[in-house]
Amino acid sequence: MHPRKLLAATLVCLTLAAPALSSAQQAENITINAKAATTPFPHFWEQTFGSGRAILALRDSYRQDLRTVKQATDFKSVRFHGILNDEVGIYDPDRKTVAFAQMKSSDVVTDGSGDYNFSYLDQIYDGLLANNVRPFVELSFMPKKLAADPNKLHPFWYKPIVSPPRDYAEWDKLITAFAQHVIARYGIDEVATWKFETWNEPNLDFWGGEPKQATYFELYDHTARALKAVSPRIQIGGPATAQAAWVGKFLQHLKDANVPADFVSTHVYANDTADNVLGTNENVPRDTMVYRAVKMVHEQILASPYPKMPLIFSEYNASYANEPNVTDSPYIGAWLANNIRLCDGLTDSMDYWSFSDVFEEQGVVRTPFYGGFGLVAADNIPKASLNAFRALHRLGVNRIAVASDSALATTANNELSIALWNYAAPIGTGATYTMPTGPAGPDKVFHLDVKNAPSKTAQLWRVDWNHGNALKEFDAMGRPQGSLTRAQIDRLQKAGAMAAPEAVKLTHDTLDVTVPAQGLAVLVFTK
After folding, report:
1. CA 416 and chain centroid, separation
2. The whole model's pTM is what?
3. Ranges for the Glycosyl hydrolases family 39 N-terminal catalytic domain (predicted)?
C-alpha cells in the first residue's frame, strides 16, 4: 500500500476547472473479422483482488462484498496485509506459559500448536474458501513479541509493526508452523495453488530494516527457505515493492544467493511519478503509467538470470490517493480497458487494489464516496468500477487484433465480444469530489464493420455517467455526509446496479455505437 494514501484524507482540494471542449463528436472506423486469427487472452486483470487487512475478512460486510465481486468477475484469490498482526493472534509465546502455570502438570495437554494460535487464521481462510476464493498470502506484519523494535510502527490507523524480527530462528519457526498448519488443514494439493508473498512494499516505510534492500533480502531468504523446507510445492515470491522497484536486483540476488522463488511481484499506481517508477524526467499520463511500469519490469525479467519468471503486479489502481473523481466514478471503465489492451502478454496477473471499501487504513469509513479503492462502497453499494469489471468479464479468451487504441475484440464459444471506450482524463484532482458541470469530453462514434459475426444481433452493455453509476444518484441526493438512512442506501444500491443491456443489430455488417467521454461499452454477439 502506498504511504501517500494516508495523506489523501487531508489533501487540500485541487479541483480544476474543466477545459473548454468542442461538443462535436469524434468518430472512428473499425473493421473486425470474427474468423480472423487470434492469440490467447487470459483474463489476467481479474484473477486476484486486494482488500483491507486480514482481520476484516471476519466481518459479514466484507464477505457480502466478496460474494458480490465474485459473482461479477469469478476472481480466484484475494491478497491482504496483516495476517501476522497481533489482532489475528497467531504469535504469543507467553500465552501458553501463563495458561500452563495455572494448571497442574498432570492436567497439561498440548495440541502441538506450541506458541501459535491459528483460530482466527482458520476462520479467515475458511470464509474465503467457502466462497471459492483462495488466499494470496502476504506474510506481514511483525508480531509485537517477535519484533526487534516493537515501537517501529507504520502510520496506518491500525499501526502495524514494520520492524525486522528480533531473532530469525524464531521467525523461521513461525513461518514453518504457519505452512505446516495450513497444509494440515487444507491439504498440500490446495495450498500448492496459493501464492505466498514476503512482506509488503519494503522499499517504503512498511519495512524498518536498514539498509532496506539488504535487510529485506535477508527476510525473504529466511522466509523462502523455511516455506520450501515444509514443501517444495509451496509458491513463494517477492519483493512486493512499490513503484515497480528492485525487481532486477531481486532476481540477481536469487541467483547469487541460490534462493528459491516461483514468481516476482511488485506494485504501481497510475499517478505514481516517472522519476519514482521509470527513473526519467517525464510527465507520464495516468492512462499509460501502469503500462510503462509493466513493460519495464517485463523487460527486466527477460534480461535477468530467470527470463521465464512469472510476473505478478500484486497491487495497482488508477490512484494511490483518495480521489472520488477517479476511483468512485465511471472513469475507471475506460482506464481499465485501456490498461488491459496495453498490458496483455506482459504480466501473468494484475491485481486491482481493492475489491471492497470495507477498509480502515485511514480510519473508519465516514461516507460511501470518498475515493476509496474498492469496487463496492460502504453498505454494499456497487460503484461504476464494479460494473466496468462486470462488463469486461464478458470478453472472450481469444483476442483478435484490432487497429484501434480504443477497442478490444475477442472470441469464445461461438461468441464475439467487443469492448469500446472513450478515454478522457478525470475532471480535476484531489480528495474532494466536485460534480462535473458538463461532460469530460466529446462523445465518440464507433463505425463498426463486423465480418462473420456469429449473429446479426448483440447485447450492448454500458458503463458511463448515466449507466450503472451510483455517484450520479449520490449527487442528486445532495452528497449526504455521515451515516446514510436505509432508504438512501437502497436508492444508491439500485442506482449502482448494472444497467440492463440494449439490443442492437448489424445492418449490412455495420453498426454505429456512440460512447460518451469516460464511457465503456461492451458488445456481445452470441450464436
Report:
1. 27
2. 0.90
3. 30-495
Supply the residues annotated as catalytic: 201, 315
Q: Which three cell numbers stand for residue 502?
A: 440494449
Which residues lie below 8 Å from residue 322, measured CB to CB, with a gap of 6+?
5, 8, 9, 11, 362, 370, 371, 372, 431
DSSP reduced 3-state for 263: strand
CA distance 214 to 164: 12
Q: How far apart are alpha carbons 438 and 518 in whole angstroms?
A: 12
Say whether 159 sits in a helix, a strand or coil. coil
Q: What is the DSSP letter of 356?
A: B
| Closest by CA position to 139, among listed 1, 50, 247, 238 | 238
Which residues are CB-contacts of 389 (< 8 A; sequence separation ≥ 6)? 46, 69, 72, 73, 336, 352, 375
**Residue whose C-alpha is closest to residue 300's, from 350, 244, 352:** 244
Q: Measured between alpha carbons, how far is 210 from 162 in angstroms, rounded to an integer?
A: 12
The pLDDT tens digits along the chain (527 residues) read 554 444 333 332 322 223 333 446 789 999 999 999 999 999 999 999 999 999 999 999 999 999 999 999 999 999 999 999 999 999 988 876 444 445 444 333 333 346 799 999 999 999 999 999 999 999 999 999 999 999 999 999 999 999 999 999 999 999 999 999 999 999 999 999 999 999 999 999 999 999 999 999 999 999 999 999 999 999 999 999 999 999 999 999 999 999 999 999 999 999 999 999 999 999 999 999 999 999 999 999 999 999 999 999 999 999 999 988 899 999 999 999 999 999 999 999 999 999 999 999 999 988 889 899 999 999 999 999 999 999 999 999 999 999 999 999 999 989 999 999 999 998 766 656 666 656 678 999 999 999 999 999 999 999 999 999 999 999 889 888 878 999 999 999 999 999 999 999 999 999 999 999 999 999 999 98
Q: What is the DSSP letter of 479?
A: -
